[in-house]
From TrEMBL:
Source organism per UniProt: Phytohabitans flavus
Superkingdom, taxonomy of origin: Bacteria
GO molecular function: ATP binding
Assigned keywords, A-Z: ATP-binding, Nucleotide-binding
InterPro entries attached to this UniProt entry: DUF3107
Name recorded for this polypeptide: ATP-binding protein
C-alpha cells in the first residue's frame, strides 16, 4: 500500500510503501492528530520509520499500490 504525506513548506511529498492496511494507517494518522505527542510515525515495508510533526502535515493520501507495468504494453 502507498501512503503519501504532504508536508507544509516542502516542495515534494513523502511517499511510503507500507505493509499495513489502509484502515490501520488511517487509525495511526487520526490517533496522531488527536494525541498530545505531536508526531505522526509510520513504518515502511523495509522497517524504516518516518516521523513527521503533526503541525506540519498538510494532507495524507492512502492508496492501494498499483502494480507497475514492465516493458512495452498495449493499452
Amino acid at each position: 500500500m502507498e501512503v503519501k504525506i504532504g508536508v507544509q513548506y516542502a516542495p515534494r511529498e513523502l511517499v511510503i510503501e507500507s505493509a499495513q492496511t489502509p484502515t490501520e494507517v488511517e487509525k495511526i494518522v487520526t490517533d496522531a492528530i488527536a494525541s498530545d505527542s505531536g508526531v505522526l510515525a509510520l513504518q515502511d515495508e523495509k522497517g524504516r520509520r518516518v516521523i513527521v510533526p503533526v503541525s506540519k502535515v498538510a494532507y495524507v493520501e492512502i492508496a492501494e499500490a498499483a502494480p507497475r507495468a514492465v516493458g512495452f504494453t498495449a493499452r
